[in-house]
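Figure S4 source data
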Amino acid sequence: MLFDVADESALDDLVIYPDENNPAQGDLTDLQVDANGVTGLSNGAEAGGAYDVGLQFGSVPDEVTGNITQTNFTVSSGDGTAVGFEDIDLNNMKVIVNSENGTPNVLGVTNSNAPDWTPAAADPEPTVEDFMSLMIPVEEDGAMSGMAEETMEDELFI
């Protein structure tokens, strides 16, 4: 997953959990933080642009190896302040999947009533609701599972 932050000066204070290559915490196998300097994954798979943050997931340290179907991570600042949607550039997020076989798929966020990850030529105007619906299960009545709406607006849960 590659994304930009709204204020690049905040990159020095950015904290990502789990720790890189710590299987007891999660499956994050590479973390890159470099203003407009992250272009892809450690195996050479490119996203077609330059980003501020790159997160790589896998089951082997430093690799994309493995079938990761679900993952969790937290983005915060060094002083413990929550990182909100206004701190992330939701218009410029990409996910590289299936890069082990040499033919990666680069996906981006859409702006639709039923958002999904689609080819990178996605609509440039995603909404907070579009992004959240990709990350948290939505019940049939449209409510976010287990979350108060005010929590959803105040914090970034990925």
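Figure S5 source data
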Amino acid sequence: NGRYINVLKINKVFQSMSRKATCLDNACIESFFNQLKVGTVHNNNFKDYNSLNQAVKEYISYYNNYRIKQKLGGMSPVEYRINSSQKIA
């Protein structure tokens, strides 16, 4: 466990630690990472890191720019943000 924490520090990665019994603190990001894994890793066998890296980049682009959500009025997250910011201005 100590070696793992040291590797994180060396690479300037900061752990996110919830308080005891507050699992909902990370629910949104846990949900995203599950969707990312299902959309990339679980459905493919990548030959190398570069193939995986490219698939993750493409999925994140899809997730932000093309994936429509009923909660967002049938718009993608980017479309919703643009539409919302224009209403404020």
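The chain has a mean pLDDT of 85. The chain has one domain: 23-88.
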